[in-house]
Amino acid sequence: MADTALTLILEKTKEDEHQASLALNQARLELDSYYQQLQQIEQYRFDYSKQLTARGQNGLTASSFGHLQKFLNQLDETLLKQKAAGAQFESQVEQCSTHWHEMRKKRRSVEWLLEKKQAEQQRLRDKQEQKLMDEFATLQFARKLSR
What we know:
The structure is a single chain. The protein has helices at 2-57, 62-146. It is mostly helical. The radius of gyration is 35 Å and the shape is rod-shaped. The protein starts with a helix and ends with a helix.
């Protein structure tokens, strides 16, 4: 009966570990996506900055330069916000990793307990079998003596 309960607990801990693993993988995918998006924005800002420089060498009106500079400032603000969001993505990965390690440790503990319980039951069965074998041998010896 205790084995059945431990087996059910083991199945639950395996499912919890699996769910934690899925969450960790999802968090890692989101972090990777974040890094790709950040890289794209940085590349876009770099390209746009080069374009502004090239257009400036050919001559720009003050109004056009102001608009282009305003757009670069908006890109810089976007990059700052993205970088701030990156800490959240990294934190999420760390939390998911910690949770997954906890679930893995819990599953291993239940497996160890179940193995210990099964080994104890096997030891008791072996002891009972040895006792029966000893009794059988004693009976056979007694029969030989009585003949």
